[in-house]
Amino acid sequence: MKTHVVRTRRSAEDFPVSEHLAWKIAEVATDAVEVSPDTADMIVNRIIDNASVAAASLVRKPVASARQQAIAHPYNPGSTVFGLPVGQRFSPEWAAWANGVAVRELDFHDTFLAAEYSHPGDNVPPILAVAQHAGRSGADLIRGLATGYEIQIDLVRAICLHEHKIDHVAHLGPSAAAGIGTLLGLDADTVYQAIGQALHTTTATRQSRKGAISSWKAYAPAFAGKMAVEAVDRAMRGEGAPSPIWEGEDGVISWLLGGPNAEYSVPLPGPGEAKRAILDSYTKEHSAEYQSQAPIDLARRMRDRIGDLEQIASIVLHTSHHTHYVIGTGSNDPQKFDPHASRETLDHSVMYIFAVALQDGTWHHQHSYAPERAQRPDTVELWNKISTVEDPEWTRRYHATDPAEKAFGAKAVVTLRSGETIVDELAIADAHPLGARPFGREQYIAKFRTLAEGVIEPAEQDRFLAAAERTAELRAGELDQLSFSVSDAVLAAPSVPNGIFDAGRTA
C-alpha cells in the first residue's frame, strides 16, 4: 500500500491533476491487476449476504416504495430488481436505487469501521446494475466489486466524516463510481471526473442517523449508488467535475471536513498490487447497528449469570466513543428510549438492544423490533436502567490498526438491587472473522436460507445460490441470474401510494 497525504491546496498553487486524490483513486480503478482467489470468494459471500437482507426486507414499505419508483422506469437492456421477474428490466440507476434500499433497509449486511463507518456492500447494487445493463461477465463484476470495496474501505481508514457531521455515504459515491469504471474498463480521466461528480453530489449531513431516524437511513446509500451511476454516464459523455474535489480551496476538506490546515493520509494499493480490502470487512449475524453485535452476544452470555432480571438496579456499558455517542446515551437522543420509536431508531439504541437480548436470549430481524415487543412494560423498565459511558481503552481498540487489537465491543457492569455486581465483556462479535463463530460460506448460505424463508420459493433459492457460487463463471449477459423472483402474493403488500412517476398509472 502507498500512503497519499491529502490536504487543501490554494487555487493559485501548482497542483497537477496527477497529484489529486481523485486521480490516484482513478489509477487504482484502472489498474488491471488480477483479483486474488480469496478476494473473489469473499465477493461471492457478500453477493449472497446482500440478497439475504434484500429478501427479508422485500415487503417493508420503504423497499416497496423504491421498487415502485424503479418499475416506473422500464428500460432495455436494463437491470433487474430484487423480487421482480428477471425478464423485467429497468433503467440501471433506478434498479441500483431499488436494490440499494432493499439491501440497506434492515441494517443487516457487511460493515467496516475505522476513522469512519461504512457498509461496503452498498457498492454491490450500483455496480451489479451497470454490469447487467452493459452485458458484462461475472469476472468483470468481480473486478468492479473488488475496486468498490477497496476504495471505500481505504477512504474509511483515513478520512473521518462523522466528526464533521457528514454522512458516511460521502465515501460510497466515489467508491461506486470507481468500481463502475473498473467494470467498464474506462480510462483514468473518465473515472477521475466521475469520482469528483459522485463525491460532489453525495455529501450530506448525518441528521439522517440522528434523533428520530426515518426511512432515509436506508435510502441514503441507495441515493449515493444512483448518483455514482449517473456520474459515470456524464463523465463518459465528456462532462467534467469540480476539481480538485477534495483538495480545492472551496472543496470538501476545506469546508466540510477538517478545514484548510487538515491533512489526511489515505492508503491505496500501488501499481500491480491486488485489491484485498474486502477481506478486512465483516458481516452481521444480527439485524442491528454493528456496534450492537458484540453487546447482543454478550447479553446472551450473561443471562444465566444474572438470573432474575427484575433484580437489576442498573446496567452500565463501558464502550467506545462511537458506541457511546452514536447509539448510546452520549447521543442525548430521548428517542432512543421511546417505546414508540421507529425501527430505524431502535436499531440505533444499544440500550434497547441490550435489554431485549437479555430478556429473550436471541435476536430476530422482525420480532425483536415489533411494536408490541418494544412496548412491553418490563422491557421499558429494564431499558431505562441501561446507560453507556466512553472508556478510552475501548476507543483505542476501536481505532487500532492491528486486526488482533481492533474491537467494537463493551464491558457490561450489572448492579443488582442487593448491591452485587456482575461484570463481563466481549471485544468482538461471535460472527467476526476473529470471533467465536466466524462466518464462512456455510454461514452466509444459512443466513440466506433463514431470511428467504417464506419469501423466496425453495427452488428459486437453490437457483440463486447456485448462480451466486458460480459468479466468476457467468458469461456476458448472464448476470441477471444474480437476482431472484418472488410471487405476486409476496409483492402485494404493503400498499404504496402513487407518486410523480406513477402519473397516469392505476394504484
TrEMBL record:
Signal peptide: none annotated. Pfam families: MmgE_PrpD_C, MmgE_PrpD_N. InterPro entries: 2-Methylcitrate_Dehydratase, MmgE/PrpD_sf, MmgE/PrpD_sf_1, MmgE/PrpD_sf_2, MmgE_PrpD, MmgE_PrpD_C, MmgE_PrpD_N. GO terms for molecular function: 2-methylcitrate dehydratase activity; aconitate hydratase activity. The keyword Hydrolase does not apply. Its EC number is 4.2.1.3, 4.2.1.79. It catalyses: citrate = D-threo-isocitrate; (2S,3S)-2-methylcitrate = 2-methyl-cis-aconitate + H2O. Keywords: Lyase, Tricarboxylic acid cycle. Pathway: Carbohydrate metabolism; tricarboxylic acid cycle; isocitrate from oxaloacetate: step 1/2; Organic acid metabolism; propanoate degradation. Residues 286-469 form the MmgE/PrpD C-terminal domain. The keyword Endoplasmic reticulum does not apply. Residues 19-264 form the MmgE/PrpD N-terminal domain. One of its GO terms (biological process) is propionate metabolic process. Monomer. Belongs to the PrpD family. This is Aconitate hydratase. It comes from Antrihabitans cavernicola.
